């Protein structure tokens, strides 16, 4: 058995959860916040049997596509004044960061 921890952008979370549940995967949703853009994301916990692992990973890959987005980045306005002004930069968002762990024991009461 495997535990999949998938961190996805909020925009992708609902569709991913729907797709996983329609295929019979149990999903636990945790609201989390990303460190780089300080934007909301969602962490999903999915426990899967080894024979269903590839199917689950395929759904995550299909739903969570990366895309470009304009974000504001603070840029110093010079010297020691300490003034900052937002500067638009293009960043890649979306996709999924996935961690996979082997589960030694699973108990459901």
H/I helix tally = 2
Specify the helix fraction band: 10-25%
Task: Give the biggest beta sheet.
Answer: 4 strands, antiparallel
The percent range for strand residues is over 45%
Low-pLDDT parts are none
Order of helices and strands: EHEEHEEE
Count all strands and give the number: 6
What is the gyration radius calculated from CA atoms?
A: 18 Å
Task: Give me the secondary-structure category.
Answer: alpha+beta
The order of strands across the largest sheet is 2-3-1-6
Molecular shape: elongated
Average pLDDT across residues?
Answer: 84
What is the straight-line distance between the termini? Answer: 18 Å
In short:
With 109 residues, the chain is an alpha+beta fold.
């Amino acid at each position: 058995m495997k535990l999949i921890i998938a961190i996805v952008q909020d925009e992708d979370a609902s569709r991913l959860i729907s797709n996983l549940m329609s295929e019979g995967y149990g999903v636990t949703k945790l609201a989390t916040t990303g460190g780089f853009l300080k934007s909301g994301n969602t962490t999903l916990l999915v426990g899967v049997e080894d024979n269903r692992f590839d199917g689950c990973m395929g759904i995550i890959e299909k739903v969570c596509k990366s895309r470009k987005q304009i974000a504001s980045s603070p840029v110093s306005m010079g010297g020691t004044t300490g003034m900052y002004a937002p500067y638009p930069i293009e960043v890649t968002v979306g996709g999924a960061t996935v961690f996979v762990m082997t589960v030694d024991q699973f108990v459901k009461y």
